[in-house]
Inverse folding.
């Protein structure tokens, strides 16, 4: 039966379906809990509950008194279900100095064209993991981790075990998504680790890892034994606003029963923000939980709305990080790792040292220039001091970032230490390692014959934002790569694993770590990924410079694998219609395009791609529905002074309405918005017969008047 999308249901259909779902779920519950004879799979059950929650989300008024959403004690799911966030969970831009904060404030004011002092909230940045809690009619119906920001994991049952998270709230909007941070206090962390070591279990490196590991337990009864806490600091979907300002919205969450951070202050301008930052920094050591900075947010929610978002971060907030933590230790060795694109990366092997609560024994050394004391442009860094094996080096760690080497103590340099010679031969395959002009990185030229590149490509292929095959992570890929009986050397061979296994006497099932159930699950997971969206496939190919964002752009532009492949085959670097079409995609530059076209013309790479695609059904990607606005698809130019919004805001608004904003007038210009003082551009536009409007007309078009 075709299931109608929830957005298309009528009120009557929704009510009828909610009744059917309530009965079906109640029946399944009885079979599972009471009779111990389940009638449906866990995933089917989860799907019913999800559908029920989605319909209730759209029609809160139709929620039944016997709604399945209100019943706790759902069966433990195998793995977490996925939750698509209705409103994306974003991350924050970072500021590392007072200057960065002043710049942020200035940028916000200039964007808004605001002259006076602007109010911001300032509060600690909690070092935990973010969680989104959905309440419908005051009842907690879903909890989801951030995941990749678009889709998170359904951890509802686990969240229900956290004392700081209310199950029911009174006086809230019908739909309310509360967002905040799950964390563990220092005392609880120490006690948990003490218990773990007493029973010989694994201990956690820091409170954040402990919080993440505890929340993401498949068995919620384990989460229940872990002392997790929660601070609310933001929100997602809402059926009605919480307040007019950030500060009042947080107060409202507090009055609804959430824990909010007591160090949240309302500050007038950068000087007060920085004052509060310094005060929080002083209290940091005695708070009893980890924080890694201070978050500033524009207080007025109407202004937040105007400021809006960049691709992954809001323009109205910033995280002012505390300085990185430092420590000195000995550099024992420098190893060279070979990455997916052949890059030779030097890794420092260190005498283990604690940096900010974490034991560090490896750090990145970036590239050969960095070791030699030079930057990418040949300039001097560290006063030109090079890094040698045996040196005392300063290690630093800022938040999540991979530890780095900052400095060298020449006074402690052993007398026999010699400058490091960076290899010019790939340590993995012996091919020449070449450094091209203008590239900071030396690369192995072995391509597909280099085992290190091949393994890294496979790891990338199965990674979370690529094929994301459950049960086939980096560790398993590495093992399969070296397997003498069932080797997987290329992505295509993942899809022949099952048929090869069937033909073997020495079966996967009898191997170490592989039981009947795990083999069956692996094959099912691989089967499921024979259907793959085009954007994921393009990203998974691991072509240099093609990240997730560019893969999405390419997929929406070409739509299908057939069209994409035909265009790449026909394209020639730097010339012809296909090249022009490719480089005309907004966000695709010559470097990316060259890398892409070259990969498709490289015989071995091409053969590997063809072999892979033969096993797949590639799902087409539809271009996002065009924005329905008077300026969608048009090219706009702003000139003169705008009095009601800044240039930056006008540009962002125009782009949100589907228009392109250009800096100069040409035959391609559709519309010129001219404020007072407009000069040559207005003349040019008039000469070209382009329509010219003033700011008020623009505001009317943009729906602001
Ligand atoms: S606001 C749209 N406030 O930091 C912005 N985030 O680096 C929503 N975090 O993903 C986030 N404390 O997990 C905000 N007081 C705070 C925070 C905070 C910790 C985390 C959050 C976010 C990450 C961004």
């Amino acid at each position: 039966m075709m299931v109608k999308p929830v957005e298309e249901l009528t009120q009557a259909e929704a009510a009828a379906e909610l009744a059917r779902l309530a009965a079906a779920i109640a029946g399944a519950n009885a079979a599972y809990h009471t009779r111990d004879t389940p009638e449906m799979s866990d995933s089917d059950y989860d799907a019913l509950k999800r559908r029920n929650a989605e319909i209730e989300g759209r029609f809160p008024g139709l929620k039944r008194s016997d709604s399945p959403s209100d019943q706790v004690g759902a069966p433990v799911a195998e793995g977490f279900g996925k939750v698509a966030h209705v409103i994306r969970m974003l991350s924050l831009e970072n500021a590392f100095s007072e200057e960065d904060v002043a710049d942020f404030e200035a940028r916000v004011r200039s964007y808004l064209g605001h002259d006076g002092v602007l109010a911001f909230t300032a509060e600690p940045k909690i070092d935990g993991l973010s969680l989104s809690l959905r309440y419908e009619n005051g009842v907690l119906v879903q909890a989801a981790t951030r995941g990749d920001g678009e889709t998170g994991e359904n951890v509802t049952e686990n969240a229900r075990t956290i004392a700081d998270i209310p199950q029911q709230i009174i006086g809230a909007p019908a739909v309310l998504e509360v967002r905040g941070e799950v964390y563990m206090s220092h005392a609880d962390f120490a006690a948990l680790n003490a218990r773990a070591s007493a029973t010989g279990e694994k201990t956690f490196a820091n409170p954040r890892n402990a919080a993440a590991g505890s929340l993401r337990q498949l068995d919620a009864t384990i989460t229940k034994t872990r002392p997790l806490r929660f601070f609310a600091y933001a929100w997602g979907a809402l059926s009605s606003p919480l307040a007019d300002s950030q500060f009042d919205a947080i107060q409202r969450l507090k009055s609804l029963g959430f824990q909010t951070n007591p160090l949240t202050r309302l500050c007038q301008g950068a000087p007060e923000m920085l004052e509060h930052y310094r005060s929080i920094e002083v209290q940091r050591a005695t708070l009893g939980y980890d924080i890694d900075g201070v978050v500033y947010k524009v207080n007025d929610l109407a202004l937040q709305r105007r400021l809006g978002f960049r691709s992954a971060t809001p323009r109205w907030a910033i995280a002012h990080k505390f300085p990185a933590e430092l420590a000195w230790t000995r550099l024992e060795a420098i190893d060279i790792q070979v990455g997916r694109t052949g890059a030779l990366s030097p890794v420092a092997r260190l005498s283990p040292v604690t940096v900010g609560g974490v034991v560090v024994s490896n750090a990145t050394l970036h590239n050969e220039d960095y070791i030699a004391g030079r930057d990418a442009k040949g300039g001097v860094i560290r006063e030109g001091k090079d890094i040698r094996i045996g040196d005392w080096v300063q290690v630093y760690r800022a938040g999540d970032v991979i530890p780095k080497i900052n400095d060298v103590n020449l006074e402690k340099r052993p007398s026999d230490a010699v400058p490091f010679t960076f290899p010019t031969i790939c340590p993995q395959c012996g091919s020449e390692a070449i450094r091209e002009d203008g590239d900071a990185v030396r690369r192995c030229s072995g391509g597909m014959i280099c085992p290190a590149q091949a393994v890294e490509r496979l790891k990338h292929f199965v990674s979370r934002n690529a094929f994301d095959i459950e049960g086939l992570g980096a560790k398993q890929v590495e093992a399969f790569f070296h397997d003498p009986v069932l080797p997987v050397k290329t992505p295509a061979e993942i899809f022949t694993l099952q048929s090869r296994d069937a033909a073997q006497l020495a079966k996967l099932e009898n191997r170490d770590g592989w039981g009947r159930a795990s083999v069956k699950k692996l094959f099912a997971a691989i089967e499921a990924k024979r259907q793959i969206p085009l954007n994921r496939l393009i990203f998974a190919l691991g072509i240099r410079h093609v990240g997730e964002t560019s893969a999405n752009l390419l997929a929406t532009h070409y739509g299908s694998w057939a069209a994409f492949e035909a265009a790449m085959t026909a394209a020639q670097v730097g010339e012809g219609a296909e090249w022009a079409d490719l480089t005309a995609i907004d966000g695709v530059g010559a470097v990316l395009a060259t890398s892409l076209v070259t990969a498709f013309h490289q015989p071995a790479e091409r053969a590997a791609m063809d072999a892979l695609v033969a096993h797949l059904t590639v799902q087409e990607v539809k271009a996002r529905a065009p924005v329905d606005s008077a300026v969608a698809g048009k090219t706009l130019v702003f000139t003169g002074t705008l009095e009601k919004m800044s240039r930056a805001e006008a540009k962002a608004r125009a782009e949100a309405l589907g228009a392109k904003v250009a800096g100069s007038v040409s035959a391609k210009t559709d519309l010129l918005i001219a404020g007072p003082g407009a000069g040559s551009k207005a003349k040019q536009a008039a000469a070209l017969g382009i329509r010219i409007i003033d700011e008020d007309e623009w505001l009317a078009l943009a729906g602001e008047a």
